[in-house]
Amino acid sequence: xxxxxxxxxxxxxxxxxxxxxxxxxxxxxxxxxxxxxxxxxxxxxxxxxxxxxxxxxxxxxxxxxxxxxxxxxxxxxxxxxxxxxxxxxxxxxxxxxxxxxxxxxxxxxxxxxxxxxxxxxxxxxxxxxxxxxxxxxxxxxxxxxxxxxxxxxxxxxxxxxxxxxxxxxxxxxxxxxxxxxxxxxxxxxxxxxxxxxxxxxxxxxxxxxxxxxxxxxxxxxxxxxxxxxxxxxxxxxxxxxxxxxxxxxxxxxxxxxxxxxxxxxxxxxxxxxxxxxxxxxxxxxxxxxxxxxxxxxxxxxxxxxxxxxxxxxxxxxxxxxxxxxxxxxxxxxxxxxxxxxxxxxxxxxxxxxxxxxxxxxxxxxxxxxxxxxxxxxxxxxxxxxxxxxxxxxxxxxxxxxxxxxxxxxxxxxxxxxxxxxxxxx
Length: 425
Ligand SMILES: Cc1cc2nc3c(=O)[nH]c(=O)nc-3n(C[C@H](O)[C@H](O)[C@H](O)COP(=O)(O)O)c2cc1C
Prior knowledge:
The protein is an alpha/beta fold.
């Protein structure tokens, strides 16, 4: 397929990348398989992708997989008679809107920093006249090595954009920095650099919390709640669709990370608060997480044992930090609009108004989670938007529709721009 064809997106991704051309350089890293997902989701968003596979890259993914998923030829050789009769390495970069190196190995990063051009990928990168985004991944020591860090600093100073690496378990069995950014995060970075996450909230930063928190009792047991994360995740996706640069701080849920959103995974309320504070300043904060009010006061390092003849242990609880109140009173860093949720089983409006006053937030979305409502874990929600100027009752809507309506109300409040059908998302 030639660049320029018009493949319609097949899913409701938060951005439309039709007509945009990506040159994807796949280098030799164990996480190269994840890039196949980036290709698949990028194609769904309408992105046209050509790819270069380094010799190292071809050890981890096959040219056939890449060609089948990109629906395009895969370029591998610099000394190719057919491709180079048309100056392939120059044409590939000239015809792209963005160049993505993923995974970016320590080796290709070093070559880029030093201007080496000893294969098709490095030669194309040296000839690049387009924005370059790299997604590094490597062993934790390779990443921390002074040589790699100096090379990264050189690339940053030249305006090369980075996505990741993240922290976590690495394929080499070690733990730490060096993990390839997840596909949704890479796609969000692509969309941002291509300027295609456009909408009334473009230029605004949004912070959304979602899901339950897990408060450990001992290494194997925890206190949790029934929040599914469906509503918070849908709100993050809806804000991203309207162009907001969105960070989702998520407790443990079964929901997939929304595309176009940077998702930070946490477990406890304390971790959620730290992640929120690390992601300020923001223009919008929506606290949809069901944060545990209490944690166990004494954390047990070892599993509590059930001993014959002994009484059951008594758990003493301590109060968790109040994330909504903390964000609402964050001084200069307070988001312009702070929205909280109130899950109530009775006296919905009365309790929501009291919560609004107590927490100092701007809006409360009050929802009835009483027995029989099916709100927790269900797909629909009956909410009231309570603000200082009154109470708005919304009809029973799906959680997706609640999210869309809330994002539109936020856009209206912050910018006065009503999202319309013409808005590019
Ligand atoms: C199993 C295995 C996994 C590897 N994973 C990585 C990796 O994640 N990151 C990295 O920088 N290098 C990794 N390497 C080393 C590179 O593949 C090697 O440096 C290669 O020369 C990179 O070539 P390229 O950058 O031209 O693709 C790995 C090597 C092996 C054998």
